[in-house]
Specification:
This protein has six helices and no strands. It has 140 residues and is an all-alpha fold. Helix 4 packs across helix 6.
Length: 140
């Protein structure tokens, strides 16, 4: 019954799927300047998600992609704080293209590639990264 209500409700923005969407940059933050970078990532994530909505993907699929985007943002910010400080100066587009390509995204640090469940999660994450990569390249 809840799905029927959600389907009838006008949902056309990322925050309609994750009400904390615009809080993600503060969730990812390691240092204060990460907020600016996180917000810049959302400037690309938002039209990407809006495109998924316009393409009429299911609520479940859009939520899956949003969850993976939240994970991607956290991975990128974490890497900027750990070993990739030089990438802080990149534009949002170039920053994303540094970490994703037409095959995959970054390996998620806290997932064990030998664990079948986590391997499946990584594959789903990579699928979102591939889709985002294609979106970035086609929406210059």
């Amino acid at each position: 019954m809840a799905n029927i209500k959600m389907d009838k409700k006008k949902i056309n923005a990322p925050e309609d799927y994750f009400d904390n969407y615009y809080d993600w940059p503060s969730d990812w933050m390691g240092v204060e300047e990460d907020i600016i970078i996180g917000n810049s990532l959302l400037t690309i994530f938002t039209p990407f998600v809006e495109t998924l909505i316009e393409e009429k993907h299911s609520v479940k699929t859009i939520k899956k992609h949003l969850g993976n985007l939240a994970l991607l943002g956290g991975e990128i910010i974490g890497r900027l704080n750990d070993e990739d400080e030089k990438n802080r100066k990149l534009t949002p587009r170039k920053l994303l293209l540094e970490y994703i390509d037409d095959e995959c995204g970054p390996l998620v640090d806290h997932w064990d590639p030998n664990n079948k469940t986590e391997e499946a999660l990584q594959k789903a994450f990579d699928g979102t990264c591939r889709k985002l990569h294609k979106f970035i390249l086609t929406s210059k």
